[in-house]
Amino acid sequence: MTKTILYARVSTTEQTLEHQQAQAEASGFAFDYVIADHGLSGVSVPIKERPEGRRLFDLLREGDTLVVRWLDRLGRNYVDVTATVRELLDRGVTIRTVINGMSFDGSAKDPMSKAVRDALLGFMAAMAEAQAETMKEAQAAGIALARSKGAYRGRKPSFSREQLDQVVALLGEGRGPAEVARAAKVSRQTVYRIKENPGAAGRALAAWA
């Protein structure tokens, strides 16, 4: 019997399993299992080295569906993410994302279809790693800025780390500000500010972390 599994990686206090699950269910998903790793970096800890990540690989079989909010939940390292996705596709698992409702499976047979699928997967994995590097730099800069100004941290951001990730991901796909604002549940002005300077947005979050 096939099954549908939600996998969540909750890496900061701004993210919750409940939010990721509610977002997925609001998009029409229903789950046989909900699996989550808490407090683990997607950059330095490959999914197979996470306690629940190992359990996920034990559970997934041919015909099953794996649901993630975005591919960055599987990891933020390009090599790790692409290897993970390809292994699951070869196993016969379908991977679906909550954001944008994207679906990847191993059914592509002709070379052109495979090339298009793999190119998109590669782009998404590269974006996840690039976002991680940007956030790391922004956090370091934000901490330094906060220290240099003492207790002053500026205006508290009106968005969470999860919303920032989603806005950057959707903008990277060429989505319009209005569509991005609706999807991420932020104002259009917030989308414009993030688009103009995502590094500054990350630094603002880091200053208030």
Would you mind describing this structure in some detail?
The chain is an alpha/beta fold and 209 residues long. The chain has 2 domains: 4-110, Rossmann fold (3-Layer(aba) Sandwich), CATH 3.40.50; 114-207, no CATH class. Helices cover 53% and strands 11% of the residues. The protein has 8 helices and 5 strands; from the N terminus they run βαβαβαββααααα. The chain has a 5-stranded mixed beta sheet with strand order 2-1-3-4-5, with helices on both faces. It starts with a strand and ends with a helix.
Relevant terms:
globular, Rossmann fold, single chain, 5 strands, alpha/beta, 11% strand, 8 helices, 2 domains, five-stranded mixed sheet, 209 residues
Sketch the topology as an H/E string, one letter per element.
EHEHEHEEHHHHH
Q: What strand line-up does the widest sheet have?
A: 2-1-3-4-5
- Judging by the overall fold, what is the CATH architecture of the largest domain? 3-Layer(aba) Sandwich
Shape: globular
Biggest beta sheet summary: 5 strands, mixed
